[in-house]
Amino acid sequence: MQPGIVGTDEPGSNQLSMQVQPNPASDFLHISLGQALSGQVQLQLIGADGRTVLRRNMDGFSEGQIITLDVQQVPAGVYIVRLENGVGSSMKKVMIH
Q1: Are 69 and 54 in contact (CB under 8 A)?
Q2: What DSSP character marks residue 84?
Q3: Contacts of 51 (CB under 8 A, 6+ apart)
Q4: Could you write out the DSSP letters of every residue in 21-61?
Q5: CA gap 50, 46 in Å, rounded
Q6: With left for phi above 0 and alpha for psi between -120 and 50, is residue 48 left, alpha or beta?
Q7: Is the pTM of this model over 0.90?
Q8: Cα–Cα distance measured from residue 24 to residue 36, given in angstroms and rounded to the nearest whole number
Q9: I want to staple 29 with a disulfide (CB 3.0 to 4.6 A). Which of 14, 59, 69, 79 is the partner?
Q10: Measured between alpha carbons, how far is 91 from 33 in angstroms, rounded to an integer?
Q11: What is the spatial distance between Cα 45 and Cα 79, in angstroms, rounded to a whole number?
């Protein structure tokens, strides 16, 4: 019997190089990408129950640009930061306390 493999990669999706700091966070999350993206870009903070807690839609994303999310009103817990556009997506687990 072979052990199963579990991951968060999505088939057919290119992974984007995303940095999320600080982790854990209590007031703000700073998100940056190692590449520029054109077109619609969606950034989401998703709770452990699968609900989107914060969402930001942007028209493009510059290499090195930093997006700041205010998480002061977000309940403590484990969340996923998800960034996606037509080119690919990236997800990072973060703790908010």
Answers
A1: yes
A2: E
A3: none
A4: ESSSBSSEEEEEESS-EEEEEEEEEEETTS-EEEEEEEEEE
A5: 6
A6: alpha
A7: no
A8: 26
A9: 69
A10: 12
A11: 6
Q: Taking residues 59-85, what's their average pLDDT? A: 92
List the structure tokens of 35. 């590449």
pLDDT digits (tens, 9 = 90+) for 16-58: 788 999 999 999 999 998 888 888 999 999 999 999 999 999 9
Token look-up 């984007």 returns 16
Residue pointed to by tokens 């709770």: 47
- Answer whether residue 96 shows pLDDT above 60: yes
What is the DSSP secondary structure assignment for residue 71, as one 8-state letter? -
> Cα-flanking dihedrals φ and ψ of residue 52, to 5°?
-80, 120
